[in-house]
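Ticket #4471: structure export looks truncated?
Reporter: QA, pipeline team
Priority: medium

Steps to reproduce: submit the single chain below to the structure queue and open the exported record.
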Amino acid sequence: MSVDLNGFTVFAKVAELGGFTAAADALGLSKSMVSRQVSALEDQLGVRLLNRTTRRINLTEAGAVVFERAQRIVAEAQEAAEEATCVEGAVRGQLRINAPMSFGISQLGPVMPEFMERYPEINVDLVLNDRRVDLIEEGFDVSLRISALTDSSLIARQLAPVERYIVGAPDYFEKHGVPKRPADLVHHDFMLYTLLARPNQLEMTNAKGEKEQVELKGHFLCNNADAMVGMMLKGMGLVFSPDVLCHEHLKSGKLVRVLEDWSVPPLTLHAIYPHSRHLAAKVRAFVDFTVEKFGPGKAPWVG
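Actual output as written to the record:
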């Protein structure tokens, strides 16, 4: 059977965006042309792919199967184009990046102008949030994550370690005293980061191998680390903070680290991207750039 591959591309966009008008706008075609392409594909395959009503469209059972295959066809075509681009040595195209909010603002944002200047033919769509995204489902090319473990279905390039400390403002410790061991933390007020799996649970180990587990207490819960650091600088409480966010304040003396003889396992900053037979030039360029800026021994918060 001879099939027009353009029909698969158009159908995939209709199914993805949920309508002919949206697909037409995205593809730069007329709505009537989009409709004709889908109808022609249905005729060629001999099945109905979409149930159409005046308000919405829905995939038929056959349509769902074809949509999955059509997405692969489109992805393969894009990959082929990017591979050809790579052969020519050019780095161009749309690059969708995801990164944690606070890290994106304090670390990634300041170096992005250099990346953009180095690769002027790349258009960057940078999305900052603190939730774990599905790269494939949400259409991201690469994500920067601070984590202990990575999804085995993705490729993870290890960058810099991220240590975590108990920190607070000097004024806070003058008023409430300095904890000598983790068990003392039950007497202190914490600001808790709610996106952790167990924000109020902490286990620390010292050089002798002794472990202490403590339940942290606090009157302020927040899903953004920058907000907590801002309050901490005013002496409002303690924070179990990654060094990437507090290292400058520790250097200046605005914040103080306590329990330096106790630690928790470090996390790691990773550059994560989906498996692909041929890594797109734009993704390779960005991953190499993150290694240059945040690789082992290069990250500004390390050392």
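Status: closed, not a bug. The export was complete when the record was re-opened. Leaving a note from the reviewer for reference: The domain at 90-161+267-294 is CATH 3.40.190.10 (D-Maltodextrin-Binding Protein; domain 2).
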